[in-house]
Specification:
The complex is a heterodimer of chains A (306) and B (278).
Chain A: H1 20-45, E1 48-50, E2 56-60, H2 63-69, E3 70-71, E4 81-82, H3 84-116, H4 120-135, H5 138-149, H6 154-161, H7 175-199, H8 204-211, H9 216-227, H10 229-244, H11 248-254, H12 261-269, H13 276-305
Antiparallel strand pairs in A: 1-2, 3-4
Helix pairs in contact in A: 2-13, 3-7, 3-10, 4-7, 5-7, 5-11, 7-10, 7-11, 8-9, 10-13, 12-13
Chain B: H1 14-35, H2 52-59, H3 63-97, H4 104-116, H5 119-132, H6 139-163, H7 168-175, H8 180-209, H9 212-217, H10 225-234, H11 239-269
Helix pairs in contact in B: 1-11, 2-3, 2-11, 3-6, 3-8, 3-10, 4-6, 6-8, 7-8, 8-11
Amino acid sequence: MAELPKVNPEGLAKTYSGFGIPLILPAWIIIGFFLVIPVAMMLVYSFLTKEFRGGVIWEFSLSAYDQFFLYRGLFGDSPPVIEWTYISIFWRSIWQAGLATFCCLIIGFPTAWFIATRTGRNKTIWLFLITIPYWVNLLIRTISMKFLIRDNGPLNEFFLSIGLISEPFHIINTNFAVQLGLFYSYLPFMVLPIYAAVERYNFALSEAAADLYASRTVTLFKVILPTVKPGIVAGCILVFVPSLGAFLAPDLLGGAKNFMIGSLIEEQFKGAAGNWPFGAAASMILLSLVLIVLTFYARNQTRGQI
Amino acid sequence: MYTKNVDLRHFTGFKSLTLLCLFLLYAPLIIVMVYSFNDSNSITRWNTVSLRWYYDLFYGVDAPKFKTAAINSVSIAVMAAISATVIATMAATAMLRAGRFRGKSVSFALINLPLMVPEIVTAVATLIFFSAIGFTTGYLTILIAHIVFCIPFAYLPIAARMQGIEDVYEQAAQDLYATRFQAFRLILLPLMAPGIISGFLLAFIISLDDFIITNFVKGAGVETLPTVIFGAVKQGIKPNIMAISTLLLAVSVGFVALSYFVGRMGEKSNPTTTKQGD
């Protein structure tokens, strides 16, 4: 798992020069045809008219976006006011994803630091232990969490048996359960990039800070955190982006009242709502949010290199 | 306040937080594993240890359903992982061994695109695409969708490995009159093997795990293990779900161990890396 030294980082080896295009072509065709074109099509669909019970009518319409942002009364003839239902679902998702990212960071950074500062075999074992849950099926992890925290589940039974509480804690189907699920799902995504950054950290910097009478806390905040920041930012992105569009945690742990973007979109295609243009529009808005985050990240990264 | 003997790598409390982190990650999984051996109809009450629910999984009422789903899951994962690995190996060779060519910088973004688009968006887009071109959803649509999102996962370890191999070996082969194809097949490919195997294993696990995209593009009738488990959980967690979860968990752990050992072998066999920091 150790990273190999990059002997040929720029990819300038020319052994097969002239074959570049034929070699890359399959990747272009598959991803272009089955991802780029579909996303473009989704954009088109978000501007079409809905057909009941799924599908679309090929007629231009802004009604999907209109439904998302504006409320025009029960019969659609009142003066439009801002529709808060969907905006608040998005807002809740952003808030939940942000909070999950923060919690993952609080526990992920010390973990990554601790593992990266172990030596020899120990380090490998710790790293291995952190990597295993990362490979375990997300659905199964979410189910395990549901099993653990349900009203008469092992967690409540344990608390009841030691007399900490007198009646079961109600965790499932709350915002807190969703939060727990997101945190649990994406924690390894936070640890691994920070670990990689701490591994490259030069401890001479800490020594220099200590020589200049910096306290531990000052060294942590003024020297270490700024140096390993790229790893932290990468970890935050890796947690935030999938949390934002998460479906399993809100669906299985949150119940109907704690809707997030993922469930809203799913509802339009698989559920009772059956409004494809609206689902496509919500997906486009989600995709735009993610692209904004990623652009911000990319700009940050390039600035860091200069 | 500062003394020279202090270990600058050490922060108080970091170890406890790490242990907490591991506890949080493992506790739910271990509890499900333990309860899967419970010989009781209820998931709450503990009876005695038995393999009853494993038996139920293979011979019970739902057995045919799980069996079909397992066959679908594994066959899709194998085919998707093989296709993605071949495509990713070719792409990595193009990106790292073919000098400059038109569209190279865009190619990198394109290969990583499936990682950047949120899964649910990919799922929606793929469903819309297949329905618009009138392609019936089912086994084949799942396979195609899986190949797409497996490509970047296969690409990462393959490209990382190729980056670590100097091109002097292929040049030497060509100096000795090997054709470029021979240099690729006899020199680069064997050196690449650990990266290719890791890429394949990663793609396989990613395909086996996928729920959201599969759920969207599966259509009626075709189920994979995650979709069948999800459907069952919607009606409440039954003990047999815990048994199948434990089995899948064991498969995942087995694969990590396998990929880890392949990686170890790779480190030892790479002629370019003179020293490995351990």
